Amino acid sequence: MHQSLASPSPRRSFLQRLAAGSAAFLASGSVAGAAAPSHAAVVAPDDPLFARIRGKHRQVFDVTSPNDGWGPVFALTWLESTKEALGVPDSDITAVIVMRHFAMPLALSSDVWAKYHVGEMINVSDPKTKATAVRNVFHDNIPMHPGLTYQQLAANPSVVLLACNKALTVLSGMAGQRIGVSAEQAKREWTAGLIRGISPVASGVYGVHRAQQAGCTYCNGG
Q1: Which of 71, 62, 206, 83 is nearest to 141 (CA)?
Q2: pLDDT band at 17, cuts 50/70/90?
Q3: Which residue, 27, 31, 113, 164, has most beta carbons within 10 Å?
Q4: CA torsion, points 43, 46, 48, 51, in degrees to nearest 10?
Q5: Which CATH number covers residue 83?
Q6: Is the peptide bond before 8 cis (omega within 30 degrees of 0)?
Q7: What is the mean pLDDT of residues 175-181?
């Protein structure tokens, strides 16, 4: 049987180990919601991910924890309510969702969750079994949006979905060590296991920063 991270609190032990092994990762903390520049800010042509940000209304959602899958809901609510309140078309609005820190694994396929015990790592249970999740329970279970998947969300032209590569590197390495897989192999498999349409970005804090440079206002997505 797979051994838990520690007793009595696997979550606490994991956080302690991560702090000791990757202080820089944890030191990233939260990003201040400083005023964003004008939406007319120039986006570097070699940054195609951020060149996808379009329209007058732009907001970045900084998602740092699983939060029962509610991170993308804030973005969807903003999209829907902004269009309703202002009567603007889809082409005039963009939501950027950055999954970083312990929210990064939400961007992974269920195969990766099963092999690397992701549910145990980030303390997520499966609502169907009430046991530790061995699948990505959020991918097709976005609150208030039954039937909508992350893949479908990422295909929306008004949405840019990003995953923190720094978190992917650190977490995959730790998960690989626990099951006897090299850090290099684990990172390859986690990268290959990103849900279609979700793009890796150098780091989550970089993604939030670039989105704000491209004219996005800031929202803490949980």
Answers
A1: 71
A2: low
A3: 164
A4: 10
A5: 3.40.1260.10
A6: yes
A7: 97
Is 4 inside a domain boundary? Answer: no
Percentages helix, strand, coil for the chain (3-state, rounded to 5) are 45, 15, 40
| Two structure tokens written together for 163 | 């995953």
Provide the residue range defining the domain that includes 198. Answer: 44-220
Tell me whether residue 157 is in a domain: yes
Work out whether the CA dihedral 103, 3, 176, 126 comes out positive or negative: negative
Residue-averaged pLDDT of the chain: 87
Q: 53 burial class (0-12, 13-18, 19+ CB within 10 angstroms)?
A: buried
In a domain, 83, yes or no: yes
Alpha helix stretches (DSSP H) within the chain: 10-21, 23-27, 48-51, 71-86, 110-116, 118-121, 150-154, 165-179, 183-192, 204-213
Counting the structural domains of the chain, the total is 1
Identify the weakest region by mean pLDDT among 10-19, 116-125, 198-207.
10-19
Find the helix or strand (DSSP H, E) in which 222 lies: none
Place of tokens 């008004």: 158
How much is the pTM?
0.83
Tell which residue, 84, 79, 31, has the closest CA to residue 55: 79
